[in-house]
Amino acid sequence: MISIDTASISLAHYPFMWSLLGLATSLVILGSGYTARFVLPLAERLYPRILATSREPDRHLSHIQPDQRIQFDLTRQDTWKNIPTDADLLWCFPATPLDLVRQFAATLEPRSRRLVVLGSTSSYRTGDMETDPPSWTDETAPIDLSKSRVQGEEYLREKHGAVVLRVAGIYGSGRNPLDWIKQGRVGLSRKYVNLIHVEDLAEICLTALQRGLSGEAYNVSDGTPRTWKDICRMAQDRWGIQPSVEIDDASTGKRIVNGKLLSLLSSAQKSLAHVDLYRSLEQLHSEKATT
What we know:
Blueprint: H1 15-21, E1 26-30, H2 34-43, E2 49-54, H3 57-60, E3 69-71, E4 87-91, H4 98-108, E5 115-120, E6 136-137, H5 148-160, E7 163-167, E8 169-171, H6 177-182, E9 192-193, E10 195-197, H7 198-211, E11 217-220, E12 226-227, H8 228-239, E13 255-256, H9 259-267, H10 277-289
Parallel strand pairs: 1-2, 1-4, 2-3, 4-5, 5-7, 6-13, 7-11, 8-10
Antiparallel strand pairs: 9-12
């Protein structure tokens, strides 16, 4: 038997190999927003055909070719038929309400090959908010099934073998934590925050589509929780950005463990590129200064 490492070659240039390997020839991004913009160029190395969905594709997806745009709205069943057969799916919007998630997922079987769902680390119960620092949270920690999106994510994971990525706060170009401080959206607080750079998240999405274990959940963060107080002080010391608010928050937040994710990336001979938040913020600050 011939062994082919699909991660080491650009299969998008050899469409016939996909059928030989039993792989999906298309990737459909359900709900194409901020993260999808970074997934699209990377996915071109791996898929012969990439499609993106929006409720109003001509309005919101003008940055991609018209033949790559699909109208899709979970609340409009007449748009469900627009999702092609034999496609891998990257689900980027909250999986709610549960009844529609169930009905739509039923139309996918057995059409879709791989399903990756972007969830959130907010799925985990907060636990003891007074513990400082908070205990570490891995994928075995209790989740909050009272939340509608968590119900949808768990249904897709348990019943349809979805790989669920529980994603920390996303930042990157156009989404800069330094701006959040300036705008007063965050401030001096002892609360821990977990973050992931969007460029790393894009790579993680594709790795999960290729190598993620069916029915598994993975925590997605850079692995270094920080308090907002520490981030705000760094912003002030390095760039003179003065926090405009001081938040009296009794919660100490979460500290997310990402060891399972790192093992997945290692299996594809990949690693996180943005593990130093302060260096990444320096890059974002420099990019903004030159525009």
